[in-house]
Specification:
Blueprint: H1 2-22, E1 28-35, E2 38-45, E3 59-64, E4 76-80, H2 87-92, E5 110-114, H3 137-152, E6 160-165, H4 167-178, E7 185-189, H5 195-200, E8 219-224, H6 234-243, E9 248-252, H7 261-265, E10 285-289, E11 309-311, E12 315-322, E13 326-333, E14 348-356, E15 368-373, E16 376-381, E17 389-396, E18 400-406
Parallel strand pairs: 4-5, 4-6, 6-7, 7-8, 8-9
Antiparallel strand pairs: 1-2, 2-3, 3-5, 9-11, 10-14, 12-13, 13-18, 14-17, 15-16, 15-18
Amino acid sequence: MKNLILSLGLVLATAAGAFALDVSWPPARQKESEFTGRKLETFQHGSRQEWGYAEAQKDTFLVLHPTKEIKSNAPLYVVLHSAGHDVHSCLACTTKVGNHDIYHAPQDFFALYVDCKANKGDWWWSINKYPGPEVSPPEKRVIDTVKWVVKQYGIDENRVYLCGNSMGGSGTLGIGMRHGDVFAAIKANVPAEVKHVSSRMYFPPQTVPTNITLPDPPIVVDYSAPNDGWSRGHDGFIKAMNDRKYALFMYWGPFGHANNHQEIMKVNDLINSFDWLNVKKNESYPVFTDASTNDTHPWPNQLTDKKAGQINAFFRWKDVSDTADSVETSLFLVKPTELKTTFTIPAEATADVTLRRLQMLKIAPATTVRWRYGKSTGEATADATGCVTIPKLKITAEPTSLVISKLK
């Protein structure tokens, strides 16, 4: 009888311990206040078992509302703070222009600020504590938090965006790129290394296992400085993005580990030129690779180069149609009248173009399709992931339609 009681006690204790991990989910609102004229809610929660934490922990996140009440389908701006901040000091930065400008959420967006400072070692970059390609507990926590906020506030799930500075920039790349099924686009301000994203995305020398299917990643915006030690490794990152046909808008110059947009733009005035917050997850997008207009990046051997540069900065597009039989996208370059910059805006460019996030047209690996671009036509074969790349298209400021269709 005594042994039975002890056994029962052990079972109950084990069950209670397991339950303790889940008891604080969904998150509980701790406080409602006002911040810069916007409603602010503070939430706390515990650890879900499926996140894989060794021990349960308490975490906090903040939800900042738009300045005007939006009943449904508002976009969401998700912020990951740097190693020098926590979630509260991160939000406090937004009271002053020039203080970590990437943290400043648009007035008509909901904003989610997530914390990783409260629990030792629970960093956004995750790569040191959680090496390898497996998604880590803090990353799973971020994704579940985003999904909960999207559902709780009726967010437009096709307009969810992730950004961060320094360590938060590393997390933006590492968490964001792996979850193209969640984020429409991501933007990283001076990310503190690219080891995180390189690991999670199986960049070389790794390869994507045959049993792993990665969703088409979000469009990536990255602005980094060669005179910032944290930018090391960008040569491999840029090459992997190009070789994998992933969408990258890259800007650099000798602005160090800066977070003030006005100061950075004195060096490279293109960092905010692409409207990443207008990308939608339910729309296809073109990937431009090996473009003739790309500047030669300075990593790893020209780190003292004072010249600012860019990759893919001048390409634009507009979706025309996406059906079960074909997809049409209009490609063009930004015009000098549309963009004020110290860079010379090219009149024409050549680039390989790959369409990703096709909504209706399904292309199986190794399938041959027909393409038309202006007056040019041809056939192309999809790669092992089902992506079709049309090489060396000539793109100008005059919109030209690229059509990819099934063979009949």
